[in-house]
Design a protein that fits this description.
With 233 residues, the chain is of the alpha/beta class. It has helices spanning 28-36, 53-63, 75-86, 103-116, 138-147, 151-155, 159-162, 191-209, 221-232, and strands spanning 3-7, 22-23, 26-27, 43-48, 66-69, 90-95, 120-121, 134-137, 170-171.
Length: 233
């Protein structure tokens, strides 16, 4: 199985300290890790920055993630350091602003990447904004590390891969119908996003506590989509 590598940092330009903002009574970043714990993986790593270590250490320990600190702005390099340190061959890339990442779609795209021998796999469109992950081979990312020079390519890790289809084996299908909701925004990047996330989390929590859905089902895409549409549409 692949590794799960979650990138996160304490500071945020648009929503300062968002990783530690409470969501259902616990920090947002912990909720992201809880969701990613439902994705099959051999190892789970929280790849953060030096100034995040103190705050993130107990949260990573609580959720079974291993903490690793690397460069703040060169996130591509941060990932490559993680890959070398843990001798990882395949991994799932996730970001710390997505507490409603679809665990089942993440597992599916990772499985497809493995079956196809893809260097990079990710749903090209269809998912709600903030629902997806990327499945990547370490060898491909090491090649990107050498070739990527633009700031955007270093900050966002994977653009060099899908920007060079002649160099890499890409798998970028449309998301299956059951996970489609491109009109929905479930990431947390602004105050408005955060307020929306609080409402959505409360609804999913209610569904789980009343037995309407199981604790595992609350992390599935179709359940999250249904809850979102019930509240906001």
């Amino acid at each position: 199985m692949p590794a799960v590598i979650l990138q996160a940092r304490i500071d945020s330009r648009r929503l300062p300290g968002k990783s530690l903002l409470p969501l259902g009574g616990k920090p947002l970043i912990l909720r992201v890790m809880e969701a990613l714990n439902r994705v099959p993986a051999d190892v789970r790593i929280l790849a953060c920055t030096d100034d995040s270590i103190e705050a993130f250490t107990p949260l990573a320990a609580e959720t079974g993630f291993t903490l690793f600190a690397g460069p703040k702005d060169d996130v591509l390099e941060r990932y490559c350091l993680v890959l070398r340190h843990f001798n990882i061959k395949q991994f799932i890339r996730a970001t710390g602003d997505n507490p409603f990442v679809f665990a089942d779609s993440a597992a599916a795209i990772s499985a497809e990447a493995g079956a196809l021998g893809a260097d990079y796999a990710g749903y090209s469109s269809g998912l709600p904004f903030g629902a997806g992950v990327e499945a990547v081979s370490a060898d491909a990312l090491f090649r990107a590390e050498t070739g990527a020079s633009a700031v955007y390519e270093r900050e966002h890790v994977c653009p060099y891969l899908y920007g060079h289809p002649e160099l890499f084996r890409l798998h970028r299908p449309l998301a299956p119908l059951r996970w489609q909701g491109s009109d929905m925004r479930i990431t947390v990047d602004t105050r408005e996003d955060y307020e929306r996330a609080q409402t959505l989390y409360s609804e999913l929590d209610r569904l789980a506590k009343t037995g309407t859905v199981s604790e595992e089902e609350r992390y599935r895409g179709a359940v999250i989509i249904d809850a979102y549409r019930k509240i906001f549409n």
